[in-house]
Design a protein that fits this description.
The chain is an all-alpha fold and 91 residues long. It has a domain of 31 residues. Helices cover 73% and strands 0% of the residues. The longest helix has 62 residues. The N and C termini lie far apart (112 Å).
C-alpha cells in the first residue's frame, strides 16, 4: 500500500518537473516551424505583389491613350484667360 503511494508521488513529482521542460521544447519547435513558414509566406506575398503590379502596369499602358506631349510642355500655357471688365464687376 505504501509502495503504491510512493510510486504515485514519485510519478507526480517527475511529471511536475519535466512537464514545463517538455512544454517549452514543444513550443520552441512550433515557433521555429512557424517562423520558417512565415518567412516563405512573406516572400511569396512580395513576389505576388510585384507580379500583380507589373501586369497591372502593362494592362494600363496598353489601355490608356498615349500622353499628349504638346499639352505637357512647360512653355505652352495656352491662351490667357479673359475676364470680363466693366460696371458691377469687382476688380
Amino acid at each position: 500500500m505504501m509502495e503504491r503511494l510512493f510510486e504515485w508521488v514519485a510519478k507526480g513529482a517527475l511529471i511536475l518537473i519535466f512537464a514545463p521542460l517538455l512544454l517549452c521544447l514543444a513550443l520552441q519547435g512550433a515557433i521555429a516551424i512557424l517562423a520558417a513558414i512565415l518567412s516563405w509566406l512573406v516572400g511569396f506575398a512580395v513576389l505576388i505583389g510585384a507580379v500583380a503590379g507589373i501586369s497591372a502596369g502593362a494592362v494600363l499602358r496598353r489601355r490608356l491613350p498615349p500622353p499628349d506631349t504638346r499639352r505637357l510642355a512647360p512653355d505652352s500655357y495656352g491662351e490667357p484667360i479673359r475676364r470680363p471688365k466693366g460696371r458691377g464687376r469687382e476688380s
